[in-house]
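Comment thread on ticket #2218

A.B. wrote:
> Attaching the input chain for the structure job we discussed in standup.
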Amino acid sequence: MDFCALQIQEMASFLRNCWPCPLADSIDYVFRWKLGDKLALQLYQAFLREPAERNLYADRYHIFFPWMIEVIDDKKNRGRNEWVAVLVKLIELDLNKLLPNFMRGKLHSEIGNLFNYACKNRNFDVAEKVWDYCKITGLSHRFSVNSLFLFTLYHWMNGRKMKAKTIASVLQSRIRFLRDVSNNKFSEDKVMEEMKEWKNIRDRFLEINRSYKDIMENPQTKERTRKVCNRVLNEFVNDFIDNKNRK
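C.D. wrote:
> Ran it. Output below, let me know if you need it in another format.
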C-alpha cells in the first residue's frame, strides 16, 4: 500500500510523542534494507515538512539521497547549481567511504558531464575535484577531448606545466583511442564527432580559447600583456602538438 507524504507526516506526528525522529530513522531503515527509492522518496517528502526532525539528522547524509537522486535523474537539472553541488558532495562522500554502491553508480553516470560542464564554464575548482577523484577511480576516459584540452590549457596558462603535461598525456591517450576506434570502423556517431573536433583543433583554437578572450579583448589590457598571453598560448599549442606527433 502506498502512502502520500502527508499521510506519512500525520503518522509520524503521533509517533514523535515517544520517538524523537521517526521519519529520519525510517529513511535510514529503508536505505539499509533496500526497500526501494519510491518509498524513500515518500518518506523524504514528509521529512521536508518537519523542521524539528531536520535538525536531528546530524551527519546522516543518506537522508538527502532521495532528493539527490531526483536532481541527478532529471536531465533538465544538468548545469544548475543544485546539480553541481550534489555531484561534488557525492564525490566528497565517496572519498570518505560513505557512499553506498547505488549512489556511487549515480555519481559515475554523471562524472563526465560534470567535468565537461565545469571546463566549458571555467569552473576549474570543480574540474580539479573531478580530476583528482577520477585519478583514483580510473574514470578519466569519460572526459571529452575539448574539456581535457581546456583543462590542460588552464594549468599551462597558470604556470603548472608539469601538471599540464600529465593531463595532456591523458588527452593524447583519448585521441589515440578515438583514432583506433575510427580506423576499425566500430565507432559511434559521438566518437566520430569527437574525432572531427580534434582534427580541426588548430583552426578552432581561437574559439576553444574563448575562456581567455576577456583578457585579450579588454581595451584596458596592456599590449605587453596581450603579447605575453599570445606567446604562452602559442608555446603551449606548439609543444603539445609536437609532443603528440612524436608519440
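A.B. wrote:
> Thanks. Noting for the ticket: The chain has 14 helices and no strands.
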